[in-house]
Amino acid sequence: MEKTDDWKHLLAKRETDTHFVVEGQLAVQRLQDSQYEVEKVIRIGEDLTRREASNLLGFHFHRGHLAIVRKPENPPLSAFSHGTLVILPEIADPGNLGTIIRNTAALGGAGVILGSGTSPYNAKAIRASAGNLFRLPVRRSPDLLKDLNQLSQTHTLLGTSLSEGSIPLTELPETQKNIALLLGPEDFGLSSEVETLCLHLVHLPMSRSVDSLNVASASAIFLHELRKAFP
I need a labelling partner for 45 at 20 to 30 A (CA). Which of 79, 107, 120, 139 fits? Predict the structure, then answer.
């Protein structure tokens, strides 16, 4: 286990199995207002010079605050039994992940569940989330197919897909359950195994021969439309 008294070493690594680093005054403020366990706040000019921070982090650091944070326990699936969920079976880009977390928080989502891919504690993901990572439950699923089977008892699994069986989102039938929105990678989408678990496959109608959007952009549109349809 990493020792937080070796905080310069933790800064240089940015993320370990037990800790991660948060950059910037606003992000640190939102972090301190959350339930996350902050182990050290580092103020540039007091604890470190700007040059020292830049050398440790490996890039020109111009923000005034840093924090070292203990990773929380992975929330149980029972914490996601209510509200609209966003599920990402596989996401590679931390910027997209952070933006999706921000979109989910802004548009009434109750949480995000991740399969494989990038970490939500990646510095780029935290920046893109604008601190909303600290306000929204995010689960790293150890067995996503098992989680999906269990969630199907409380949620309508809605897969975004361009496959032949997909319907426009505007034609989605009414449902009494909460929605779990599954977004696949931009290059190959949801796997056939995941698609078979979805009650409905949906897509966004588009024009001018454009067949897809950036996954983070698409998440905002899907969440906005679902919020209107199922307030």
Answer: 120
